């Protein structure tokens, strides 16, 4: 199960890096810019460890789908981004897709 732990670390660090990118103001603020760089290095490193076990399509689907959901929540909390009904429905569909992949896809078996 360490592949899913690594994938979780990759997802969380990517969300932190993406949030910091917004705060970096076009890479004009040093600390948020450093958080972006370090966050993406950590994210891609742990994603690469995940890919030793999980198929790339499955890992990327989970990574990107979960990342979209989490970054949408972070943008709502941190930056006041509005999430209308269409956005919430879309996020719900993404969550459903990640659940279907994990629960029913034979492609994710390792």
Automatic annotation (TrEMBL):
Q: Cite the entry's keywords alphabetically.
A: Cell membrane, Membrane, Transmembrane, Transmembrane helix, Transport
Q: Which InterPro entries match?
A: EmrE-like, Small_drug/metabolite_transptr, Small_multidrug_res
Provide the primary localization. Answer: membrane
The membrane spanning regions, by residue number, are 30-51, 58-79, 85-104
Q: Which GO terms describe its biological process?
A: glycine betaine transport; xenobiotic detoxification by transmembrane export across the plasma membrane
Q: Which SUPFAM superfamilies match?
A: Multidrug resistance efflux transporter EmrE
Coiled-coil spans in chain: none
Any one Gene Ontology MF annotation carried by this entry is: antiporter activity
Quote a single Gene Ontology cellular component term: plasma membrane
Task: From the Swiss-Prot or TrEMBL record, state where the protein is found.
Answer: Cell membrane
Q: Does the keyword Cell membrane apply?
A: yes
Pfam families (alphabetical): Multi_Drug_Res
- What membrane topology term does the record carry? Multi-pass membrane protein
The record's family statement is: Belongs to the drug/metabolite transporter (DMT) superfamily. Small multidrug resistance (SMR) (TC 2.A.7.1) family.
**UniProt protein name:** Small multidrug resistance pump
Organism from which the protein derives: Kaistia hirudinis
């Amino acid at each position: 199960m360490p592949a899913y732990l690594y994938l979780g670390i990759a997802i969380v660090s990517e969300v932190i890096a993406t949030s910091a990118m917004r705060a970096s103001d076009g890479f004009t603020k040093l600390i948020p810019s450093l958080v972006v760089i370090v966050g993406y290095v950590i994210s891609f490193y742990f994603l690469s460890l995940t890919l030793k076990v999980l198929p790339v399509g499955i890992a990327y689907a989970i990574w990107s789908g979960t990342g979209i959901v989490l970054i949408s929540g972070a943008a709502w909390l941190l930056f006041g981004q509005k999430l209308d009904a269409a956005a919430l429905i879309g996020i719900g569909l993404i969550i459903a897709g990640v659940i279907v992949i994990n629960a029913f896809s034979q492609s994710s078996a390792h």
